[in-house]
Amino acid sequence: MPHMPLPHNHGQHIELNMDSLPDTEAFKIVSNLFKQLCDESRIRIFWLLCHCEECVINLAAMMNMSSPAVSHHLRQLKDSGVVVSRREGKEVYYKAADTGQVKLLHSMIETLMEISCPSEQEKQEG
Hints:
Elements: H1 14-19, H2 24-36, H3 40-51, E1 54-55, H4 56-63, H5 67-79, E2 83-88, E3 91-96, H6 100-113, H7 118-125
Antiparallel strand pairs: 1-3, 2-3
């Protein structure tokens, strides 16, 4: 971003930070990702899929929701890139994508909610 004079000079040299400011598209991606996690059911589904791979019917039973409702949330999570799927015969299985963003989101959710991962509990108990 080119240097431009700012209306007020507070002596903070914000121009230095403006040089490293990501473009608007980068913030749009992050904003869209957070929009996907604005629903508590979607966060619970995402969290579950960080720990297991599961089909819609089992997820619906675990969430105490209808299959169409779970499918709706899965579609949004998949469109945002945090969930992936694979087909085996007639069954479709979902799990969290194996990306740095997903790992960070998972960790952030657990930290904010003070939830321990089942795998971490096993390590502590073992």
